């Protein structure tokens, strides 16, 4: 047994070493860690298309995960967060997510809600403007909307003086503050819509969106983007827009979610990289979404907030035939790359090492393993399988015990029920 563990440990080490030295490392556009979201100076995410979520019906093109509302020390920080005033209404969407989506940020995505409406995750737990859910598939009720400027919200046609009512934040450098003041002075007699429309066109026409970039860190990421590199991805476009608005006294925050996708039949598949856009606060209305990034940000293979290798190939049509990175691929097929499986293989081997005795016992004499598990959870020793059958409701245990006494073999009847019982107790259900 010790020899097997040693072999498993050596294999895990070799795989991990090979993974680190032969797989192209992730160079995310922005990394979410806890309540913080980092902004990069260099990136290369031109080939990441790892599946994140599937939605049906396929209407939603933006899935919202979480917001970050404070720009501090060159990064975004999440301090609280809510959807604001609104009513629960909308259509029902079935959303499935992958484990990779949870690893990126532990919250369940919802379709971007229309201003004044609130989404609801069936069986989910709401935490401000995020949802958690103990599973990978559920139904979400939401009134979906595309972030401005794809859809014009009447709530945007309010005088700028009615939304610029907060104290300017002064989060970035002096020249960023001066730029914000100039923009406000130019539009203070006009509407919020006029300002956002101008900023959208100004950012898209004066700043370059690129798949890869190598830069030298500056004093502040927003200042660096606006005045030095003038090159960025969605993270920089959204961050600059939100910081400038807050410097005008207009409350705004960045929103992390999924927006790179393709439609296949009656469902939509979302893939990495993830996306960042903006929500602007309008009194008595709530948060209004706004995406200032160029349209290229939403194309397959465009860099956004974070990425992974391999993935799903975009749909192939007679007019366009984009291809996904990695091996194989075709319209909507999953492209399997051995290197993409390395982290999962390594995790499997580590689990095998740590729980070798337990796994062996469940495979060879599962009733004994189940009795040990049940006794720990119940807090009582010396239980027979017949007593366990009465306590747990797994009646097959009685037949298993009788058969073992007759022939000395354990039947497989009740195995999955017993395993499910132990797992549910371990997870606190």
From TrEMBL:
Q: Which Gene3D superfamilies match?
A: 3.10.620.30
Against InterPro entries, the record matches this protein to: Bact_TGase-like (IPR052901), Papain-like_cys_pep_sf (IPR038765), Transglutaminase-like (IPR002931)
| SUPFAM superfamilies per record | Cysteine proteinases
Domain Transglutaminase-like per the UniProt entry, residue ranges: 226-294
Matching entries from Pfam families are given as:
Transglut_core
Output this protein's name: Transglutaminase-like domain-containing protein
The species this protein belongs to is Ignicoccus pacificus DSM 13166
Per the UniProt record, the lineage of the source organism begins with: Archaea, Thermoproteota, Thermoprotei, Desulfurococcales, Desulfurococcaceae
């Amino acid at each position: 047994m010790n020899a097997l563990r040693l072999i498993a440990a050596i294999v895990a080490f070799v795989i991990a070493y090979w993974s680190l030295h032969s797989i192209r490392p992730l160079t995310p556009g922005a990394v979410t860690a806890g309540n913080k979201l980092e902004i990069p100076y260099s990136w290369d995410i031109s080939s990441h298309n790892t599946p994140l979520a599937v939605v049906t019906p396929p209407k939603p093109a933006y899935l919202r995960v979480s917001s970050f509302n404070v720009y501090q020390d060159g990064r975004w920080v999440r301090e609280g967060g809510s959807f604001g005033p609104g009513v629960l209404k909308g259509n029902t969407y079935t959303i499935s997510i992958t484990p990779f989506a949870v690893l990126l940020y532990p919250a369940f995505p919802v379709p971007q809600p229309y201003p004044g409406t609130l989404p609801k995750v069936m069986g989910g737990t709401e935490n401000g403007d995020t949802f958690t859910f103990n599973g990978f598939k559920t139904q979400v009720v939401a009134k979906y909307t595309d972030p401005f400027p794809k859809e014009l919200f009447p709530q945007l046609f309010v005088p700028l003086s009615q939304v610029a009512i907060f104290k300017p934040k002064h989060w970035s450098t002096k020249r960023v503050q001066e730029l914000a003041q100039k923009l406000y002075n130019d539009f203070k007699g006009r509407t919020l819509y006029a300002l956002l429309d101008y900023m959208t066109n100004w950012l898209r026409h004066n700043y370059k969106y690129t798949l890869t970039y190598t830069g030298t860190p500056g004093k502040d990421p927003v200042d660096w983007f606006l005045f030095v590199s003038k090159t960025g991805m969605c993270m920089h476009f959204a961050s600059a827009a939100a910081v400038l608005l807050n410097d005008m006294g207009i409350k705004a925050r960045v929103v992390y979610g999924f927006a790179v996708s393709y439609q296949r039949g009656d469902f939509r598949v979302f893939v990495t990289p993830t996306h960042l856009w903006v929500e602007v606060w309008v009194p008595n209305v709530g948060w209004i979404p706004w995406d200032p990034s160029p349209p290229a940000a939403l194309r397959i293979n465009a860099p956004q907030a974070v990425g992974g290798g391999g993935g799903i190939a975009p749909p192939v049509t007679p007019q366009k035939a984009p291809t996904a990175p990695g091996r194989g691929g075709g319209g909507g097929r999953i492209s399997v790359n051995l290197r993409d499986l390395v982290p999962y293989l390594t995790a499997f081997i580590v689990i095998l090492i740590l729980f070798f005795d337990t796994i062996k016992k469940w495979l060879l004499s599962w009733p004994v393993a189940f009795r040990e598990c049940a006794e720990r959870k119940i807090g009582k020793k010396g239980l027979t399988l017949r007593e366990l059958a009465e306590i747990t409701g797994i009646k097959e245990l009685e037949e298993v015990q009788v058969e073992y006494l007759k022939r000395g073999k354990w039947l497989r009847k009740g195995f999955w029920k017993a395993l499910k019982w132990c797992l549910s107790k371990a997870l606190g259900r």
